Amino acid sequence: MTLPAEIKGILPEMVELARERGRPIARHTRGGWLLNAWLLPDSTPVVAVMVQPRTAMAAAPQEPDADRRGAEAGADLNRLCGEFGLTRAEARVARLLLRRLSNREVAEALSISPHTARHHTGKILLKLGITRRSEVPARLTEVGITP
Fold first, then answer.
1. DSSP 8-class letter at 143
2. Number of folded domains in the chain?
3. Cα angle 113-117-123, degrees, rounded to a multiple of 5
4. 104-139 pLDDT, tens per residue?
5. Which domain holds residue 16?
């Protein structure tokens, strides 16, 4: 199977991210590709590219409004970053806190560790000017961000 040019273009970026961050990097694409990049102990880059089986892609049909909701979610992320000074990672966590997810659930949804989810949550609370995670939905709803 030949890789699309789009995928070939992403792979060098992923290897560089893995090198910068010192940990494996994974990314999903709309075409059903799963890309992984990491470095061996001798700094040799390793890349794995997998395509999602057609049966799995067919089993999860796209909702008609999925593209519109995706654009709205992106706009919400930008607003969170702009209005509250959140990083992109913190904004993604904030969107999940809006749905009242636990740190463990946030970690699973974003493929991060529960410790990282807890760290981001603490930073979010500081930047939103609140003291409890249970106040996040009310604070974000005040400014028009919905789950």
1. T
2. 2
3. 145
4. 999 999 989 999 999 999 999 998 889 998 999 888
5. 5-59
